[in-house]
Amino acid sequence: MSEVYENRPTVLVVDDEEDLRDIMRRMLERRGFDTLVAPDSESAIATCREHDGEIDVLITDLGLPGASGGELSRAATSLRPGMGVVYISGLPKDIAVTKGLIGEDALLVKKPFTSDLLMEALRVVIAQRAGSTP
Question: Are the C-beta atoms of residues 39 and 75 closer than 8 Å to each other?
Answer without folding.
Answer: no
